[in-house]
Amino acid sequence: MALNPSFIEKSQIFFRLVFVGCGLTNLTCFSLHVFCVVVLLINRYLSSSIMGEQLRLLKVIVVQGKRLVIRDFRSSDPYVVVKLGNQTAKTRVINCCLNPVWNEELSFTLTEPLRVLNLEVFDKDLLKADDKMGNTYLNLQPLLSAGRLKDILKVSSGETTLRKVKPDSENCLVRESSINCVNGEVVQNVWLRLRGVDSGELQLTIKLITSAASSI
């Protein structure tokens, strides 16, 4: 590995001053050079780790909605807004439908420890603000934990159930949800109930994907 001579020279001067200040006066130029190389390697390792985290993707497939509420005269024109941290994406509008099928994939990057996926359904209007049709959320912690388990077990092919999540007061699950590893991808299929409205559910498929470039 080629090192910048200027970097080596400046690093040697800096660390020599530090070592002399600490009373370590017997260090050779070679040992200082080795120390600088070690520092550089550690820095590159940490930088590579951060880049690896940036290459993790969360793919959200908004499959369909069921029994959505009426916001127009007899129906609604629903679309879904999905938020992860400061990232936002939305589906297309489906006109005059209370049981819409989107089958639309939205992608997000996981660059920080984000734990909750937020979703909100709206009714598209032309002459006024879009009406709210309920909101819901998905706790991503079980999915991320399953991803770590997949790495520990080194599962890369076939289909393996990693864990199951049951509905409770801490989530919006309509029914039990399985998290599986499918050919190296961690996949969770969920039905979520909408809050703040009389009825409505959303079906999602969530995929946690780690790029091969993230491996060190």
UniProtKB/TrEMBL annotation:
PROSITE patterns cross-referenced by the UniProt entry: C2 (PS50004)
A cellular component annotation (GO) from this entry: plasma membrane
Subcellular location: Cell membrane; Nucleus
Annotated ranges, domain C2: 38-153
Keyword Transmembrane helix appears in the UniProt entry: yes
Keywords: Abscisic acid signaling pathway, Calcium, Cell membrane, GTPase activation, Lipid-binding, Membrane, Metal-binding, Nucleus, Transmembrane, Transmembrane helix
Gene Ontology terms for molecular function: GTPase activator activity; lipid binding; metal ion binding
Coiled-coil segments: none
GO biological process: abscisic acid-activated signaling pathway
The keyword S-adenosyl-L-methionine belongs to this UniProt entry's keyword annotation: no
Pfam families in the cross-refs: C2
Transmembrane segments annotated in the record for this chain: 13-42
Major location category of this protein: membrane
Family to which this protein belongs: Belongs to the plant CAR protein family.
The protein's name in its UniProt record: Protein C2-DOMAIN ABA-RELATED 11
Organism encoding this protein: Mucuna pruriens
GN (gene name): CAR11
